[in-house]
Amino acid sequence: MEPRLVAYVLPVFNESAGIVAFHHELVDATRSRPDLRFEFVYVDDGSSDTSLSELIGLRRADDRVTVVSLSRNHGHQVAVSAGLDLCGAADAVVVMDTDLQDPPAVSLRMLVTWEAGADVVYAQRRTRQDTWFKRTSASSFYWLLDQVSEVEIPRHVGDFRLMDRRVVAEVARYREHDRFLRGIVAQVGFRQEAILYDRAARTTGTSGYPIRSMLKLAASGLLGFSTTPLRLISRTGIAISLVSVGLAAYVFGVRVFDPDQAVPGWAFLGVGMFLLGGLQLVMMGVIGSYLGRVYVEAQDRPLYAIASCARGRGGRGDSAGSRVDELSLQPPGRQDPSIS
After folding, report:
1. Cβ(158)–Cβ(230) under 8 Å?
2. In sequence order, which residues have a C-beta less than 8 Å from that of residue 325 and are 6 or more positions away?
3. Residue 41: which domain range?
4. Contact 140, 174 (CB under 8 A)
5. Where exactly are the transmembrane stretches of this chain (predicted)?
6. What is the CATH number of the domain that holds 319?
7. Do residues 228 and 157 make contact, with C-beta atoms less than 8 angstroms apart?
8. Which residues of the chain have pLDDT under 50?
9. Are residues 209 and 233 in the same domain?
10. Are 193 and 325 members of one domain?
11. Tens of pLDDT along 38-86?
């Protein structure tokens, strides 16, 4: 009986300084499981450094390496989705970043839990060596998401996880463009279990998640898995209407029962108008965000474009379920058809 195939989906963006060290550590970790076949699917998300060249070198040295080069930077979530689309033949897929903050050895514990019957095994951070701002913002985001989300999304969990092939097939059916994979996997369901680990500090390169990207991901999570903001608009409108009725009754009563009493109103009226105007703009912004998502989905454009793809040994001969065709792989400025 042929050993089961485990694929690693590894998004890469400007990781040339540490990608080789990461691959060697990953290979060393997987050597302890000779009973399994492994494929390492690296997805270069439009890197501007020499990451793609480094990946090509890894593929030459290890025929289990698959390299996918996207046509431009599509973002981390789309890069992971492109890798998952390529892994329809794998029995299980591990998604992890390549900055060594998530130790490859943890994925072996995931394999044990998967073999015990779990369909999804996610790595839950016990500790994390990040800045105070990042720790605080992440905790605040997950608290807020827990309050408003219609799907239970585990706290202190990133995209580092293992998924059974059944889960991967279901996730592949979700093609929304504003992607929040943690929420999608939670939405899919199946038997999900957590393993705790300590997240290390980044030692090479810079984070691929600047504040702007973090805010965009947070918005995708909040808007994609909750209609609470829309309900809050209605509730806020009702509350303001009730306050307005009360104030109108007060003014009317003063006019009728104590007409000599002046009702101070210009300052209050001015502040009230600015307050209501600001609230209306905020509400329009929330509605606009939802409408924008609807507009993008209605266009039904492809999630990504692939500049090149070279399959490793693990992916050859059995591409069932794959959405990605094999194309020639060449880094910018190089011509080497021998590796296509």
Report:
1. no
2. 306, 309
3. 5-226+302-339
4. no
5. 232-253, 265-291
6. 3.90.550.10
7. no
8. 315-327, 329, 331-340
9. no
10. yes
11. 999 999 988 888 888 889 889 888 889 999 999 888 888 889 989 998 8
